[in-house]
Each structure stands twice: as structure tokens, then as C-alpha cells.
Amino acid sequence: MIELTPAQRRELRAKAHHLNPVVTIAGNGLTPSVLAEVERSLQVHELIKVRVQGAERDVRESLMQDLCGALDAAAVQHIGNILVVWRQRREEEKSATENTASRPAKAATAKSAAAFAAAARRAALAKASAESRRSPARTPSARVRGSGRGR
User: Is 146 in a helix, a strand, or coil?
Assistant: First the structure.
């Protein structure tokens, strides 16, 4: 288990404040599949929140110790039913991600937030352009208001 200085712990708690829990530990406890998911999440994010459901405080404390011991991670914070865990990315995964990052990705197949946002902007612009080409008489709001004739 990694030990953190108080300054490191304070900085990590501040970074974790806005995060949502990515893993939930429920009635079955710390199963191998839960450990694998926490491992994967730590490798991707380094700093994660884990929600523990249906456990007393002492059980949550032991889960935090078991989790950090099994994954060689640092216990940042335990507040309520949320555990905050940190571990630096492992080197073998860093080299694999650096190899894929060095290759240029096609814009159409990139699965990043930037590519998704760009596609959403293009779709919104296309929709706005199509709506602006319509004549004002054919818009639904013009039909609802009527021509001013009384009944």
C-alpha cells in the first residue's frame, strides 16, 4: 500500500471532489470482478471514487485497506460510503497508450470527447441551416397564431 504525505492527500482530495463513483461494492463484497474493475479504472483515471453499499463503518475501513493492499494503491479518503483511492498508472499501460497516441487517428473513427463534440456541433449547424432555409409561413409557430381572422 502506498503512503501519502498530508500535502499529497489534501491535493488528491481536492481533485476528487468533483468526481463521481466509478465502481460500486455491494452485498458480495470485494470479489475478483470488482477488483478487476477497480484495477482497470485506476489504470485509466489514477484517482477514483468507489461507493460501498450496505456496510458499516468498520467494514468499509477494512474494505479500503484490502482494496489498497491488493492493488498497491493509496487510500486518500473515506467519507460516508465513498472511498477515494489513488494509484499512479503502471508503466506497461503507459507505453501501450503512448504507442496508440503517436499514431494519427482518423477523425471519423476517433472515439474521443473532442471528436464527439465536433460531430455534435456539425449536426447542430446542419439542423440550424436546414431550419433557416424553410420559409416563415411553413413554420409551426406561424400556423398556430393564424392569419388574424376572427371566428
Answer: coil
Show pLDDT as tens, one digit a residue, over the chain (151 residues).
788 999 999 999 999 999 999 999 998 889 999 999 999 999 999 999 999 998 899 999 999 999 999 999 999 999 999 999 999 988 765 555 555 555 555 545 556 777 778 888 888 888 888 887 775 555 555 555 555 555 5
How far lies 28's CA from each of 16, 33, 117, in Å?
26, 11, 38
Predicted TM-score (pTM) of the model is 0.60
Residue carrying C-alpha cell 409557430? 141
Is there a contact between 12 and 84 (Cβ–Cβ < 8 Å)?
yes
> What topology does CATH give the domain 6-86?
Translation Initiation Factor IF3 (3.30.110)
The CA distance from 51 to 53, in Å, is 6
